[in-house]
């Protein structure tokens, strides 16, 4: 797990090239404080360089991709440069240093991520005649690329963003994992191609032309969308989407981007006639295997425990199947508050392990808010990110470098309440009226009159929404001219014909990617690697998406298949939970307690996007909200205003 960055220029540059590359590496220090390295290709060939954070044993080694020369002495004219910051997880020796190259020094790589099945691939490549000098997955990627070209991506199980320079092909080959666990951003114009793990490493480069992308501002404030499009809030800074690869010709600067993987929409028919128990047994086996692979590390591995089913299953598997060591578990708790799930987390911890807790509060949020926004590169829609941020900080303090986390479980196994609507709609369309009525009556919540009308009617789920128009509160606060110019339909629909269609929409490049982005920034800001089996284990994910949606919810229960597959690993208290809290904080309570500070905030930065009269009129209601429903709009306005100031926009 690391931070990567690089510059490819159409013409040779000297000091400004080296200075910019070093600046990028310095900005990403938090992603890899254990080691630092540079690769430069110029008029007089290529060279490796060290930096101020390169360990002495790396500097003095005789490995072909290490160097005692410091980047400050680089004095050639260069066109290609890679920077790498290393968080040492696999092969802690100097042979894990990056940027790395093959034995022939024809293929160079800077890489961020983990290929969890690297040992199996290594054995396969050795049989094909490839040699290895390290125990890293980085070297596996290099040789897999040499053996199979772009098709190597189909062999990988894990998370990755990497860039390869192929000297003979005169090509830059970059790729990102299938579902967006690891980030990849880039800037491209007629003179430069620059890439980095985080936007902050790009936007202050002297040759990067950026600003605020007004369309993305509207998408964020009005539709709750953040990075649902390849161009986010920073103008001209693009995201290589998950499941995509990029090829750049270093001579002609021709750029080609293509999708290399897509969830198959037709395969679910193959499990149509399977009985539930067969599916549950297979899921249990794949769950155990996914966690087994994600325990591969040369440093301690712990886990996040929220009190929900996803993290509970992971913790339970760790304790029952891999109990050779007592793992550290990490939770955010809110004593005395309805958002507190500590009673459920305790039920997990009672089975074993060491429990480490953080207690986020409003004062800490306010103190850390600017840093939190900077770490994320973007404004925030919810204070829940702060809880995750503090959990990762605690992990660093306890010197636990790797954490398993349940991110992706809801989108994979259908854990959110809106999925019930898609599930019922699917039953309706299949003509399964008896099961539909039974499932709706077993729904773990009050059945209001609209649901009763739906049961009786012959229409689809749209009837639930046509009876009462849902209003977006942002429409009253935002500037009318701004909305008129940039408003567009949300990417995610309110209605889906089937549960799998809904899950697929949120799993691929929308909601899950947004949550994974927060996960990556919170963990890496504190130099912690977060591993998410539900979001990147391709064997598990592809299997689950082959299962028909009408098998994924049962007896009014969300996550039916995960609940049953994990039953033997879960305390009864968690197995039988029917309430869905998410990763909640006492959000509205915090806003109320911070009202005086917020009232003194200078909102000049966001005023061009607001209706000033309505904003002032609604200020009290926005930032001192009543009730318990999380008030996203207020927090978006506050953090967007701070984001502009933090990034000097």
Write the layout of secondary structure elements.
Blueprint: E1 2-13, H1 15-27, E2 35-42, E3 45-50, H2 56-59, E4 78-86, E5 100-101, E6 107-115, H3 118-127, H4 137-148, E7 158-166, E8 171-176, E9 185-188, E10 192-196, H5 214-223, E11 238-239, E12 244-249, E13 255-259, H6 276-293, E14 301-304, H7 309-321, E15 328-332, H8 342-349, E16 354-358, H9 362-376, H10 384-397, E17 402-404, H11 409-413, H12 418-429, H13 433-441, H14 449-456, H15 462-466, H16 474-477, H17 480-486, H18 499-507, H19 511-525, E18 529-531, H20 533-536, H21 538-544, H22 560-565, H23 572-575, H24 587-593, H25 595-599, H26 612-623, H27 632-646
Parallel strand pairs: 14-15, 14-17, 15-16, 17-18
Antiparallel strand pairs: 1-4, 1-10, 2-3, 2-4, 5-6, 6-7, 7-8, 8-12, 9-10, 9-11, 12-13
Helix pairs in contact: 3-4, 6-21, 9-27, 10-19, 12-18
């Amino acid at each position: 797990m690391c931070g990567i960055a690089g510059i490819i220029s159409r013409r040779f540059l000297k000091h400004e090239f080296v200075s910019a590359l070093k600046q990028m590496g310095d900005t990403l220090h938090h992603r890899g404080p254990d080691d630092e390295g540079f690769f430069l290709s110029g008029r007089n060939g290529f060279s490796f360089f060290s930096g101020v954070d390169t360990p002495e044993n790396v500097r003095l080694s005789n490995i072909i991709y290490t160097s005692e020369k410091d980047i400050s002495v680089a004095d050639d004219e260069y066109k290609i440069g890679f920077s790498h910051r290393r968080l040492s997880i696999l092969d802690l020796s100097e042979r894990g240093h990056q940027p790395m190259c093959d034995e022939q020094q024809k293929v160079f790589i800077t890489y961020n991520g983990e290929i969890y099945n690297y040992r199996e691939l290594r054995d396969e490549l050795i049989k094909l005649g490839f040699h290895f000098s390290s125990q890293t997955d980085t070297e596996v990627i290099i040789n897999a690329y040499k053996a199979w070209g772009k098709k190597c991506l189909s062999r990988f199980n894990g998370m990755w963003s990497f860039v390869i320079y192929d000297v003979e092909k005169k090509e830059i080959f970059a790729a990102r994992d299938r579902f967006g666990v690891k980030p990849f951003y880039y800037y491209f114009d007629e003179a430069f191609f620059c890439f980095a793990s985080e936007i902050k490493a790009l936007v202050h480069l002297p040759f990067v032309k950026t600003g605020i992308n007004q369309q993305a501002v509207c998408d964020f404030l009005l539709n709750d969308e953040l990075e649902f499009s390849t161009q986010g809030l920073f103008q001209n800074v693009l995201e290589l989407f998950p499941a995509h690869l990029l090829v750049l010709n270093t001579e002609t600067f021709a750029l080609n981007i293509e999708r290399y993987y897509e969830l198959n929409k037709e395969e679910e028919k193959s499990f149509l006639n399977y009985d539930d128990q067969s599916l549950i047994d297979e899921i249990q086996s794949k769950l155990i295997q996914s966690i087994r692979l994600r325990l591969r590390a040369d440093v301690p591995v712990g886990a996040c425990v929220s009190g929900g089913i996803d993290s509970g299953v992971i913790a339970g598997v760790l304790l029952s199947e891999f109990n050779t060591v007592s793992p550290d578990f990490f939770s955010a708790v809110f004593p005395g508050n309805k958002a507190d799930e500590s009673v459920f987390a305790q039920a997990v911890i009672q089975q074993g392990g060491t429990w480490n807790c953080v207690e986020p509060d409003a004062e800490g949020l306010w103190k850390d808010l600017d840093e939190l926004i900077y770490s994320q590169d973007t404004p925030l829609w919810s204070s829940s990110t702060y809880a995750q941020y503090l959990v990762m900080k605690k992990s660093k303090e306890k010197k636990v470098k790797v954490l398993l986390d349940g991110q992706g479980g809801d989108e994979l196994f259908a854990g959110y309440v809106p999925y019930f609507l898609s599930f019922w709609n699917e039953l309706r369309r299949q003509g399964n009226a008896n099961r539909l009525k039974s499932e709706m009556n077993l729904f773990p919540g009050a059945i209001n009159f609209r649901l009763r009308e739906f049961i009786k009617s012959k229409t689809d789920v749209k009837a639930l929404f046509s009876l009462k128009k849902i209003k977006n509160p942002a429409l009253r606060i935002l500037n009318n001219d701004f909305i008129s110019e940039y408003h567009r339909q949300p990417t995610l629909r309110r209605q889906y014909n089937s549960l799998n269609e809904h899950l697929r929409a949120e799993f691929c490049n929308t909601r899950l990617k947004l949550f994974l982005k927060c996960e990556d920034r919170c963990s890496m800001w504190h130099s912690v690697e977060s591993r998410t089996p539900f979001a990147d284990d391709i064997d598990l994910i592809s299997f689950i998406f082959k299962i028909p949606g009408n098998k994924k919810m049962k007896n009014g229960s969300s996550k039916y298949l995960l609940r049953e597959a994990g039953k033997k690993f879960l305390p009864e208290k968690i197995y039988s939970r029917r309430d869905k809290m998410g990763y909640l904080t006492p959000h509205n309570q915090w806003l109320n307690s911070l009202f005086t500070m917020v009232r003194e905030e200078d909102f000049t930065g966001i005023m061009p996007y607001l209706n000033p009269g309505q904003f002032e009129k609604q200020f009290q209601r926005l930032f001192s909200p009543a009730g318990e429903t999380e008030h996203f709009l207020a927090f978006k306005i506050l953090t967007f205003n701070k984001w502009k100031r933090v990034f000097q926009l």
